[in-house]
Design goal:
Blueprint: H1 2-21, H2 27-42, H3 46-63, H4 69-84, H5 88-105, H6 111-126, H7 130-147, H8 153-168, H9 172-189, H10 195-210, H11 214-231, H12 237-252, H13 256-273, H14 279-294, H15 298-315, H16 321-336, H17 340-357, H18 363-378, H19 382-399, H20 405-417, H21 421-435, H22 439-461
Helix pairs in contact: 1-2, 2-3, 3-4, 4-5, 5-6, 6-7, 7-8, 8-9, 9-10, 10-11, 11-12, 12-13, 13-14, 14-15, 15-16, 16-17, 16-18, 17-18, 18-19, 18-22, 19-22, 20-21, 20-22, 21-22
Function: Kinesin is a microtubule-associated force-producing protein that play a role in organelle transport.
Keywords: Cytoplasm, Cytoskeleton, Microtubule, Motor protein, Repeat, TPR repeat
Main location: cytoplasm
Length: 462
């Protein structure tokens, strides 16, 4: 934070001098506001960054012709802030305005157009519109292939983004292939301890983790951490990410003491490196809370989840998806504590936010419907539970490819539930253990099977 404060002080001093020496709408004033915005962006103070970028844009609109490339850059910066704040519709509007200017001002294969496609793809990915995201990222890659040499690092970035989309839709083998293509380019183009190589190892580790290959995931995450330790200062936020990811592997393996130690190490770095209400700190409170939750220490978990939520309420807009995730986590905790009215209220709040912030078939909506179904099931309202579980399943069917492990699990459990409830449980647990299927995905189908049987039993007894 010390270097950022020095940079901010210098940029602000430059602005004060320019305000005295230059007319009020001189382009150099716009440059100063832009630079100040960049510092706020890097420190996670997105509302302040947005204000500075908007002030820069106001001056440029007066000082420059309407399709000047600098205007496109300002719209792009504003879009990035809205994207970081989870305001995806505003981000998309700003990115598209930037793109329209660039189409007029620049040749058809200019790299700034590739950048626009990339940013628009990022918003669609955040909104869960993965087919649109993939199309935008692939268009960006096409331009880069024309404009850049074959092993340019920017090509690696595009393969990385395409991998992110495949990851999000559960096509882990395709994601892994894209991440490995990105990594191959980076190995050629970059020095051996470049941070982008660490990022590639990290992403490859994510895929192995998602596929349940935890030893390979650990190996990739640890290689990523080794590079970061060489390339970055000791309290850099990216080191916190590595400790966090290694912790998640141990968490998924049920080694909660190791996970807790790593999450706390990540948290200590974030406390030093980030402002006190940065979303990254909220993530740490959440992850540590999840460990205590799974260890049955509900009071500690609740305290940490609530601290995470407090930070998010300050740092993020009121309908940001991260807030929905926090309400979701606290709601799940109340389910396990048997406090069903609180659980229902929180999961409904989570659902309300997700309905506003996300497209109608986003997978996170399925999670909310599933959790509300769990409350109704635990309180014996099986018909209501079944309705919510079926909504969850419908979304998963629409949002995931037919080869996704969750949908294949659904087929097996449909067969199992025709026989007996205990078989449902055995199949769910076996698949979760062997294939590394995420707990939430498994429970959506498993709960549907339980509720169907319970509802049928209730009906037959009437």
């Amino acid at each position: 934070m010390g270097e950022y404060s020095k940079a901010l002080s210098s940029f602000q001093r430059s602005l004060e001098i320019r305000k005295i020496a230059l007319p009020p709408n001189h382009p150099d004033l716009a440059v100063s506001y832009n630079n100040i915005g960049s510092v706020y962006e890097d420190t996670g103070e997105y509302s302040k960054a947005l204000s500075s970028y908007e002030r820069s844009l106001e001056i440029q609109k007066i000082a420059l012709p309407p399709n000047h490339p600098n205007l496109a850059s300002s719209y792009n910066n504003i879009g990035s802030m809205y994207n970081n704040m989870g305001e995806y519709s505003k981000a998309l509007s700003s990115y598209e305005r930037s793109f329209e200017i660039r189409k007029i001002a620049l040749p058809p294969n200019h790299l700034d157009l590739a950048n626009s496609y990339n940013n628009i793809g990022g918003v669609y990915a955040g909104m869960g519109e993965y087919s649109k995201a993939l199309s935008s990222f692939e268009r960006s890659l096409e331009i880069k292939k024309i404009a850049l040499p074959s092993n340019h690092p920017d090509l690696a970035g595009s393969y990385n983004n395409i991998g992110n989309v495949y990851d999000s839709i559960g096509e882990y083998s395709k994601a892994l292939s894209s991440y490995e293509r990105s990594f191959e380019i980076r190995k050629i183009a970059l020095p051996s301890n470049h941070p982008d190589l660490a990022a590639s190892h990290n992403n490859i580790g994510n895929m192995y983790s998602n596929m349940g290959e935890y030893s390979k995931a650990l190996s990739s995450y640890e290689r990523s951490l080794e590079i970061k330790k060489i390339a970055l200062p000791p309290n850099h936020p990216d080191l916190a990410v590595s400790y966090n990811n290694i912790g998640l592997v141990y968490y998924n393996m049920g080694e909660y003491s190791k996970a807790l130690s790593l999450f706390e190490q990540s948290f200590e770095i974030r406390k030093i490196a980030l402002p006190p209400n940065h979303p990254g700190l909220a993530n740490s409170y959440n992850d540590i809370g999840s460990v205590y939750y799974n260890m049955g220490e509900y009071s500690k978990a609740l305290s940490l989840y609530e601290r995470s939520l407090e930070i998010q309420k300050i740092a993020l807009p009121p309908n940001h998806p991260a807030l929905a995730a926090s309400y979701n986590n606290i709601g799940n905790l109340y389910i396990d504590m048997g406090e069903y009215s609180e659980a229902l209220s929180l999961n409904e709040r989570s659902l309300e936010i997700r309905k506003i912030a996300l497209p109608p078939n986003h997978p996170d909506l399925a999670v909310s419907y599933n959790n509300i179904g769990s409350v109704y099931e635990d309180t014996g309202e099986y018909s209501k539970a079944l309705q919510y579980y079926e909504k969850a399943q419908d979304i998963w069917k629409k949002s995931l490819p037919p080869t996704h492990s969750f949908l294949m699990l659904k087929v097996l459990l449909n067969e199992a539930q025709r026989n007996e409830y205990s078989l449902c449980q055995v199949v769910a647990e076996a698949i979760r253990t062997i294939l590394g299927v995420h707990r939430t995905n498994t429970l959506i189908v498993y709960n549907h099977g339980k509720a169907t049987i319970s509802n049928n039993d209730t009906t037959s007894n009437l």
